[in-house]
């Protein structure tokens, strides 16, 4: 037990110490320099603003979580599905994949007004924006994984007269799981960014606005402390998303894939 505690202490002590020094230095600098809260709030001001607006902040976080999760799930389903379709035929891949790359290069802020016109302002448009941002990492990573299947294994399946569907679902998809997980780790954080960007452009106000709407309103009112609180909440949301996906990755791959086996041992 003691070696485990010592190992945990060695891992957590440096970042915790750095965090305490950073926050303490920030607080001290603002007090000594007499910084106005609307220019640079102290950490204590941010905590106070978050506690005073806790109910509104929680509603905003919940709304953004809902939009990001739905967009993320759509990017998984459609990204993996389209990747399987493209990997099934080289002709389809050569015909369609370049357009997926072109779609990815178009800035989302340029497409967002069209999405609002088509789907209306509110959750529908925000979910579509979050989906579009997270779709390409899922598609590209899954496609790379499916195309990286060992040729000897594919020849073995061919010798045993396996159908293309059997080869896909019993060999190529399991072999592509590490690549799919890599796409999940990228897409989960991008979904949060997409939801917040969507709320800037297509968000609705009132009591159901997400973090993007809350950030816009607090910035226009010079409520800088609450603005920082909303920004930190968005950052924590992305971190939690990533940690959940990372835990899922370890659970799924640690028993057989070298990357997670090594990380779990270290």
What is the gist of this entry?
The chain is mainly alpha-helical and 266 residues long. Helix content is 85%, strand content 0%. The two termini are 17 Å apart.
Q: Can you characterise this structure?
A:
By secondary structure, this protein is an all-alpha fold. Helices cover 85% and strands 0% of the residues. It has eleven helices and no strands. The chain has helices spanning 2-33, 43-52, 54-88, 90-105, 108-119, 123-147, 151-159, 164-202, 211-220, 224-253, 258-265. The two termini are 17 Å apart.
Give the helix level as a range of percent.
over 70%
- The N- to C-terminal Cα distance equals 17 Å
Q: Report the major sheet.
A: none
The average pLDDT is 86
Q: Which class of secondary structure composition applies to the elements?
A: mainly alpha
Radius of gyration: 23 Å
The total beta strand count reads: 0
Give the overall shape, derived from the CA principal axes.
flat
Poorly predicted runs: none
